[in-house]
Amino acid sequence: DTAVSQTPKYLVTQMGNDKSIKCEQNLGHDTMYWYKQDSKKFLKIMFSYNNKELIINETVPNRFSPKSPDKAHLNLHINSLELGDSAVYFCASSPRTLSYNEQFFGPGTRLTVL
Amino acid sequence: GENVEQHPSTLSVQEGDSAVIKCTYSDSASNYFPWYKQELGKRPQLIIDIRSNVGEKKDQRIAVTLNKTAKHFSLHITETQPEDSAVYFCAASGSYQLTFGKGTKLSVIP
Hints:
The complex is a heterodimer of chains A (about 110) and B (about 110). With about 110 residues, chain A is an all-beta fold. Chain A has strands spanning about 5, 10-15, 20-25, 30-35, 45-50, 55, 65-70, 75-80, 85-95, 105, 110-114. In chain A, the strands form two sheets. In chain A, strands 2, 4, 5, 6, 9, 10 and 11 form a seven-stranded mixed beta sheet that branches. In chain B, β4 (about 30-40) and β5 form a beta hairpin.
């Protein structure tokens, strides 16, 4: 009965590699997000999709590419990983894009780039 | 874009005392202000929220106040307990996204 799930939970990889993180929500929500939480715990939005359409694309390197095959899934692909990409990545979903909507977070993926 | 400032960054209180965390925002169009609690190693979870047409909201030991004129809002936790120890984030929502404050690490000392 998991609401928002992410895989993997931990990801350890070498610099220069390409990796993907998967996210799925079974809440029937229209909107999904990716956040990055750095070592200082700062939560920063990266992307937002509404019904498979990109609506927010914050200033992130173009090595990061989100993909939404359907409105229940939002995956994050990262090319040419760098040390500074090490962080916890959270997926989240909400009923719709407008305000007044609680965002439900996934458990997070801790990415470590060596 | 929206900018949310949160203070203090760390807060230690004795069990049973009250804790107050304050946030300011910059975009007068923001109209939704949630607070999230993140325990160590866990995901952020909503604990209370307030909309711009309301000045105060309370849920048991937790209350939030909003001053739209001054563009600030606050979280109040009364009768703190050790399980209240966590990082608390305020956020402000405008058109399409939440902008989070940098978090307050609350430690409740038994």
